[in-house]
Design brief:
Blueprint lengths: L1 H48 L7 H15 L5 E2 L8 E2 H4 L4 H9 L8 H13 L2 H13 L2 H13 L1 H4 L9 H19 L6 H18 L3 H17 L2 H4 L1 H20 L1 H5 L6 H15 L9 H22 L4 H12 L13 H6 L9 H7 L3 H19 L2 H19 L4 H19 L4 H24 L11 H14 L5 E3 L1 H11 L12 H15 L3 H9 L5 E5 L12 H4 L10 H7 L7 E6 L3 E6 L2 H19 L3 H14 L4 H22 L1
Parallel strand pairs: 3-4
Antiparallel strand pairs: 1-2, 4-6, 5-6
């Protein structure tokens, strides 16, 4: 009998071993599928553009920082950005991924261009979230099949693919695998597995690393804090001590990194509404465990409501770091999510932030991004809500709440589709985990439906892959511009709109006055004053604006007066849809050769480069011209010519210097004729 039992045990052990091997192989295959789809979309972009495109906007600045890291170390201050004051690098950017890319880029063949190496690493790293998604839902739904369903959707759905191809470097793509790992580890920490504290610590660490590497993880932290508050009010921390222990690990890690990380300190993470709400949850969680303390419902509400209100007041009245997001949300609610045609109805921050990718989502865009998954997940959401109401299953509440909140936020802010892609992929797997308790027919019917939706999503992604990615960039013209600056810019400071300035710095090597990082109050003020001087002021006023920052070049992007989408143009942002006739922008757009202090030096189909004659140049030209006239009056023709030329070097349209040269020419001709006579 014992021999039979031993053989059974050996057979079961071998069966489990092969099952685990097949599971790991399945993860590898799914991971490879995700990588392959994203590389195919990127290759389609290459074929459409005819070349590998340059990085743009914040991605270009990110690329430059990776190059700097590979060459040595990041400086404390970068005076090439937001010239001349510069920026504190670690307080301005979510530093972290630069070191990873710099380290791994050295492992690739040196003959491969650095940009291509980084694009490969961007995809390979992001796709780690696919097997982590499988592990998360497998654990949360207690079903391997549920994990495969969610993992497949996250691998092939365009909502997950579109921003993760490597066409641009994105901090969110580096943070999302950490976020999904946090969810997977937290699911394991509360299921009674051995070493639960190790899983809780891993969950807390991954959540903190996600927050360090991407500032918009603050949205998830807010959802996490609200879910914790609901669990507290339902008594979940008392009935399930594992949840309380996990919460304390995660809250402690977030507080520690909020104090330690310069970026999080500078942007007030510790006193943000999500963190203060989490502090209230933590205080209640600790107090309810103390002997002799009996918290009533009003005590809980005070502990939760007061910190949250305090955080909202601080970030709207005191902190300017993320106040523009709240201001934009209020405008979208006020105008029912439709951007008004009249810019005077909005503030500058609301106008300039209400653009891609923070624009409101339309039904057409939602169908394009979630052609099958949106309908499936809405149905799954309703069924999960039914389960939640009928059985009060707190485990389901987290998925229902995260998906619902992400969906609502997605309608207000298109960029938040990255969160909706995560929770929309997770929800069908969670529902399958609940349906496995039902009849096999119902379960298989859902599998068939999910399979059909998966085919729709994959076909949508691969049918016309060249349409995904950044198609509104003039890549060839941008390359010509940056090449011109690399050869002729002499590393002099440049005033250019924030859409092109990052590329000028990263590839042209010239310092920039404006840059596309709007979390800082100072840069938002600079951009506002730039737009007002350009569209409301004349050439003299615009020169005064550029002069206060020492700009020696100005780059004008053509198309500022296009009748197409005026709400996306700077003249809308500064409430100047019909600028005055003397506006500097009209001269740059229609009369580039007429500038008195802006000399047209180069241009192509999209961009024009002007050299700025500053007030200092004008004063120096005036002094040299006065000296030239003085030498002319004394008959010193050579000296007069020398000083006149010096004046024209500083201001090539100085009339006094040009008159001196004319007189010198006339006098020399007269002297020549009289000498021959």
């Amino acid at each position: 009998m014992s021999g039979l039992q031993n053989r059974r045990h050996a057979f079961n052990a071998m069966k489990l071993k092969y099952r685990n091997i097949l599971f790991v192989l399945g993860l590898v295959v799914l991971y490879a599928l995700g990588v392959g789809i994203r590389r195919e979309v990127l290759q389609a972009q290459y074929r459409a553009l005819g070349e590998s495109p340059a990085f743009t906007l914040e991605s270009a600045l990110h690329f430059r920082m990776i190059q700097t890291t590979m060459a040595g170390r990041l400086p404390e201050m970068d005076f090439s950005v937001e010239y001349p004051s510069g920026v504190n690098v670690r307080r301005t950017y979510s530093i972290g991924s630069e070191y990873f890319y710099a380290l791994t880029a050295r492992c690739w063949p040196s003959r491969m261009p650095l940009a291509e190496r980084i694009r490969w690493m961007e995809v390979l790293w992001f796709c780690l979230g696919i097997p982590l998604m499988v592990l998360w839902i497998r654990q949360a739904a207690s079903s391997p099949a549920a994990g495969w369903i969610s993992g497949f959707f996250y691998a092939v759905a365009i909502s997950s693919v579109i921003r993760s191809t490597g066409q641009e470097i994105s901090r969110e793509n580096f943070a999302l695998p950490f976020l999904i790992a946090h969810l997977a580890f937290s699911a394991r920490a509360v299921c009674g597995f051995p070493r639960a504290r190790l899983w809780a610590f891993s969950s807390a660490l991954c959540l903190s690393l996600a927050a360090v590497n991407w500032d918009l993880v603050q949205f998830y932290v807010f959802l996490w804090a609200v879910a914790g508050a609901v669990r507290l009010l339902k008594g979940g921390f008392v009935s399930r001590p594992a949840f309380r222990e996990l919460w304390l690990f995660e809250w402690t890690a977030l507080m520690f990194f909020s104090l330690l990380n310069p970026y999080m300190r500078a942007h007030g993470w510790m006193i943000s509404p999500p963190m203060l709400l989490a502090c209230g949850v933590t205080a209640a969680c600790i107090l309810e465990q103390r002997p002799g303390v009996h918290l009533l419902r009003r005590h809980y509400l005070l502990l939760l409501a007061l910190p949250l209100l305090l955080g909202i007041v601080i970030h709207t009245a005191v902190s300017g770091s993320y106040a523009h997001f709240g201001e934009l949300l209020w405008a979208k609610i006020r105008f029912l999510n439709h951007k008004p045609a009249d810019p005077s109805l909005l503030s500058f921050s609301q106008r300039i932030m209400w653009v891609p990718a923070l624009h409101s989502t339309t039904w057409a865009q939602a169908r394009l991004l979630f052609p099958g998954l949106l309908g499936l997940t809405l149905g799954a959401f309703c069924v999960c809500c039914f389960y939640q109401l009928r059985r009060a299953q707190s485990e389901l509440f987290q998925f229902v709440f995260f998906y619902g909140a992400s969906l609502i936020t997605f309608w207000f802010f298109f960029r938040f589709h990255v969160y909706l892609a995560v929770f929309a992929s997770a929800l069908p797997g969670v529902l399958y985990g609940k349906l496995k308790e039902r009849t096999p027919a119902l379960r298989w019917a859902f599998v068939l439906l999910a399979g059909c939706v998966g085919v729709v999503e994959a076909r949508n992604t691969l049918a016309q892959p060249e349409q995904w990615g950044r198609t509104n960039v003039y890549y060839r013209e941008l390359d010509e511009l940056t090449e011109w600056f690399a050869k002729n810019g002499e590393q002099k400071p440049v005033a250019a709109n924030f859409g092109v300035s990052a590329s000028i710095l990263a590839y042209g090597g010239s310092p920039i006055v404006l840059h596309p990082k709007f979390e800082g109050v100072e840069i938002r003020r600079r951009v506002e004053r730039y737009g007002e001087a350009l569209f409301k002021g004349d050439e003299s006023e615009f020169r005064a604006w550029a002069g206060q920052y020492g700009a020696e070049w100005y780059v004008h992007a053509l198309g500022e007066f296009s009748s197409r989408s005026p709400e996306l143009q700077m003249r809308y942002f500064v409430n100047a849809l019909n600028p005055p006739a003397e506006a500097a922008a009209r001269m740059f757009e229609f009369r580039p050769e007429e500038g008195r202090w802006f000399r047209y030096r180069w241009g192509n189909r999209k961009y024009r480069v002007f050299e700025i004659i500053s007030e200092a140049d004008e004063e120096m030209a005036a002094r040299s011209a006065a000296r030239a006239e003085e030498e002319l009056q004394h008959g010193n023709l050579d000296n007069a010519e020398y000083y006149a030329v010096e004046a024209l070097k500083a201001d090539d349209r100085h009339t006094g210097a040009m008159n001196v040269l004319k007189h010198v020419g006339v006098l020399r001709e007269q002297n020549f004729m009289s000498g021959h006579l």
